[in-house]
Amino acid sequence: MIELKQVTKQYRQATVLKNITLSMDEPGIYCLLGRNGAGKTTLLKSIAGYQNITSGAIRVNGKTITTSTLDTDVSYIENFAKHFNLPVRKLLRIASEVNPEYDVDFALEMMERFELDGKKKFHHLSLGMKTMVSTIICLASNKEVVLLDEPVLGLDAMMRVEFYDMLTASFQKHPRIVIVSTHIIEEIAKTIQKLIIIDKGSVRFFDTLQSVETKAFRISGLQKDVEAATQNLNVLGKDTVGGLETRYIFDNPPKQTASLDIQPLSLQDFFIQMVGHRGGIKR
After folding, report:
1. What residues form DSSP beta bridges with 244?
2. pTM of the model
């Protein structure tokens, strides 16, 4: 279980995390979405105990997390993680020597699956392969909480498909809380159970993916018809051109009529509406 209470993180005059209160109390694959600079990496590092927060509290399985916490029950690998310049197979085995819960068989199986050359030294790998080694080490740790920061960075389309399969296989073998930060939104939709959207250091949305699928819609038509149909609904944003209007809602949709076009929002479009930006302009 992860519990955040009024978590704030400041760097000098900049507030990167703003009074976040959030609980994740059941196993699942959670997706963390946010624009660049929204606070995603800061949030993950704070949960992992890589840095102290300015105020508030973070607990994992009841244990308060700070940089002095000896065993956080959290496995975290940031993007561009560095490792000793050793052969891949040796790196995977070294990880098992410092963690008795480490799943060596899973790590070696994933090495073969991704056709990683076990004899090749880490610094000689491509960016995608370096990312994959880091991710395998993180997932094989068997920690109760796994944090993956941009784990598909540098992976081509085929490797990303393999990654999502690996993530699912790892979770099925060892259910736990897995938080994945990513920019490739639509691809991960088939894998996750819950969605966290962070914007300017604040959590804007935290719910199941199913809730997005059943409540996120765009409603288009003549302006007067759309306004009438959505007047009591939770409207996220709108676009108006001439006498036509499109409204984006997160609510139970109105009944379909001949004057309205009602379509579900993609996860990416829902994210865009939730953060309230398009082309850098806040609407």
Report:
1. 222, 241
2. 0.91
What is the predicted pLDDT for the residue at 81? 67
Name the one residue in this structure whose structure tokens are 């900049």.
14
Say if residues 147 and 48 touch (Cβ distance below 8 Å): yes
Residues of the chain with pLDDT under 70: 79-81, 277-283
Q: Does an H or E element contain 130, and which? A: helix 127-140
Buried b (16+ CB within 10 A) or exposed e, 244-257: ebbbbbbeebbeee
Torsion of CA 241, 246, 247, 248, to 10 degrees: -120
Which pLDDT belongs to residue 279? 40
Per-residue 3-state assignment (H helix, E strand, C coil) for 93-125:
HHHHHCCCCCCHHHHHHHHHHCCCCCCCEHHHC
H/E stretch holding 54 reads none
According to the model, what pLDDT value does residue 169 have? 92
Reported as a single tens digit per residue, the pLDDT across 50-72 is 999 999 999 999 999 999 998 88
Residue-wise pLDDT tens digits, 126-139 = 888 888 899 999 99
Structure tokens at 16: 């990167």
CB-facing half-sphere around the CA of 180: CA atoms within 13 A: 27
Answer for the pair 171, 185: CB distance below 8 angstroms, yes or no. Answer: no
Which H or E element spans position 202?
A: strand 202-208
C-alpha closest to that of 42 among 90, 4, 10, 66: 10
Query: At residue 1, what is the residue type?
Result: M
